[in-house]
Amino acid sequence: MTRQDQPVRLGDVLLVEDTPSLQMLYRTVLRKAGFPPLSAMTGAEALELFAENLPRVVLLDLMLPDTDGLSVMNEMLRQQPETRVIVISANGSISNAVEATRAGAHDFLVKPLGDLRLVSAVANAMGASKRRASQKPVLSRDLMTFGDRAFLGRSPAIRRVREQTSAIAGSLAPVFILGESGTGKCACAEMIHARSPRARGKMVLISCRGQPHAVLEQTLFGPEVAANGMVGGALARAHGSSLYLENPEALPLPLQDRLLALLDSGRITPVGGSAPQPLDIRLICSAPRDPREENLRDDLFYRLFVIALHMPPLRARREDIPFLAQSLLGEVAQQERKRFTRLSQDALDALARQPWPGNLRELANVLRQAVVLNSGPILTRAMLEPHLRAAPDTDQPAPAPPEDALAGLTMAEIERRVIEAAIERHGGSVPQAARELDIAPSTIYRKRDSWDLSQG
After folding, report:
1. Same domain, residue pair 189 and 106
2. In terms of DSSP bridges, do strands 13-16 and 37-40 run parallel, antiparallel, or are they unpaired?
């Protein structure tokens, strides 16, 4: 029996078998071979576990008590085409094998299963899944850290994102992903691209924030005259594929004008060329909040903001934290060469109570700090506590309600105090104060003008 070079995490293999004795037998064989499976006895239970864990390999009995196994496989492959499904049937007819293969099955096993055949099939499927994953380009810090883990869980918020992502993927319409830092916006963009008809091409990623005008211009559009061996800008390279723009609202206005003109014309002049060529790209953008509140001009906004998708913060999906933490722990422990296998219940409870303003990225960092400084195999609350945000001191008297300080003031006076305090906290920066208050900077400027007039 050949084990994988890397340990298989719980959730990588899903076994769907409705006969209890056979399920127990297969589960025991797979666990001893290094492929510990999650188990389901019905199609409904299988689909729920699949959505929560996005396994790499599924062993699926065709005869289930509540539904047809092929329909379950079709739904799984719709959610994640990369999964390798091994179909199991007591009927070894050619027609069943052909039907399952045509529907996307990776392999077909006939009962009764020998131990060696079962383990060999799973090992081969896992190897194929591993090779496929190694061929996918790594695009950004979010994708490198989270990948499909950003979508693990059973909360209504992440279920809605999974459903929307599947529905959006087949469209050609531009997508705008909104969400706080660390929620997995880039992983979401990659999943949309990977499930789209453009998946054969490489998705091109451009971060628009913090780049000088000249650098952004060359990055997007390419130089007017190509040097020897120089490829075109991101727009040209994304032809026939997807272009992912992080924070397009950070583009200088002249570049926004040029991008809008290019999108309106649908044509681009290749580097070193003289005649415009058709441009076929699918735009996926992301930002932490509504880009109209920043610096994105309205006509470009309506070009980019066609389908909106919101990545929920971790505090809105607390019930998913145990799945996310356990999954991240496996990868972190492997990277740091530590023998951690799981988190204790009190550790999971402590993680679930944290505010997580840094979202998934902060969760991953806390787990890494605890793993580096401790030994396994169980990660406990005591190991986590030095790296968690301090809980409020319940022995201290509760502060007076903030509304007491505003008693007797009019609404206009309260509004002015809040805005001026925000501007002061940010060193006089109106745009930063506007971001904190979730309003447009122009709104603050108008109000300040009105305050000056009333004083004059």
Report:
1. no
2. parallel
Domain presence at residue 271: yes
What is the per-residue pLDDT across 408-436, written as a single tens digit (0 to 9) for each? Answer: 677 777 788 888 888 877 777 777 777 77
Q: Which amino acid is at 235?
A: L
Reply yes or no: is the peptide bond before residue 377 cis, omega within 30 of 0: yes
> Residue written as tokens 């691209």?
193
Q: Are strands 307-310 and 175-178 parallel, antiparallel or unpaired?
A: parallel
Determine the pLDDT at residue 283: 94
Do residues 202 and 294 share a domain? Answer: yes
Secondary structure (DSSP) of 347-358: HHHHHHTS--TT
Q: What is the pLDDT of residues 228-239, one digit of tens each?
A: 344 568 888 888
- Which secondary-structure segment (H or E) carries 146? none
Nearest CA to 340 among 10, 66, 62, 115?
A: 10
- Domain membership of residue 7 (yes or no) is no
Assigned token pair, 316: 């809105």
As a whole-number percent, the residues of the chain with pLDDT over 70 amount to: 83
Distance spanning both ends of the chain, measured CA to CA: 86
- Tell me: do 120 and 170 sit in the same domain: no
> Does residue 121 sit in the same domain as residue 148?
no
CB-count exposure of residue 318 (10 Å: 0-12, 13-18, 19+): middle
Of 100, 135, 170, the position where a domain reaches its end is 135
Which CATH number characterizes residue 434's domain?
1.10.10
Kindly report the CATH number assigned to the domain that includes residue 351. 1.10.8.60
pLDDT higher for 287 or 377?
Answer: 287
Could you list the residue range(s) of the whole structural domain that residue 441 is in? Answer: 407-455
Q: Whole-structure pTM over 0.70, yes or no?
A: no
Mean pLDDT value across residues 146-154? 72
Q: Which stretch of 99-108, 245-254, 406-415 has the lowest confidence by average pLDDT?
A: 406-415
Residues 60 and 69: beta-carbon distance below 8 Å: yes
